[in-house]
Known about the structure:
By secondary structure, this protein is mostly helical. The chain has helices at 3-24, 46-58, 91-99, 125-136, 142-157, and strands at residues 40-42, 138-140.
Amino acid sequence: xxxxxxGILVGLVAFAIxxxxxxxxxxxxxxxxxxxxxxxxxxxxxxxEKHAGLVLRxxxxxECHTLWGTRDAMQAVPSPxxxxxxxLKTEAWLYEYLSARDPQSMIPSRLKARFRMPSYADMPEDxxxxxxxxxxxxxxxxxxxxxxxxxxxxxxxxEDYRP
Length: 163
Ligand code: HEC
């Protein structure tokens, strides 16, 4: 590819990302906080973020879950996004869930066995701790909290959310 073509491609990709952000993250009342104001943020320390990042990749969590708005493109498991999960669940709960032999005893599944949340009870303990800590740091901004709850509820139950 020539230099000029590369520039055009980069421009197009950047435009597509901005357009998606604007579309996906418009407030429920239709107004916007600003084009780059993502509703999600993390309060994680750098070392936890790095450790958890490796674990997330190793165990391919993105095959089923969206994180930072992305997931593996070929997968279509209707599981809840991990973005904002730290505003919905505590670190202790997340650690317990990741350590459960039977995660479905904590969250019942509506899906076929192969799409359900697998047990990570055999994952090394420090990896589970880092992961729980990182997930707990994934927060959602107040203006998006109701939407995040609604999305989680609808993914987990397959039913409409009525607060
Ligand atoms: C095979 C698909 C699959 C993989 C891989 C997977 N999950 Fe899940 N996960 C699910 C599904 C589906 C649910 C919803 C509960 C259910 O149906 O079992 C879920 C639920 C969760 C929840 C609870 C979400 C909520 O809103 O309460 C967390 C946290 C979670 N997964 C984290 C992870 C992490 C971290 C990894 C990687 C280590 C991972 N998952 C890998 C499918 C998956």
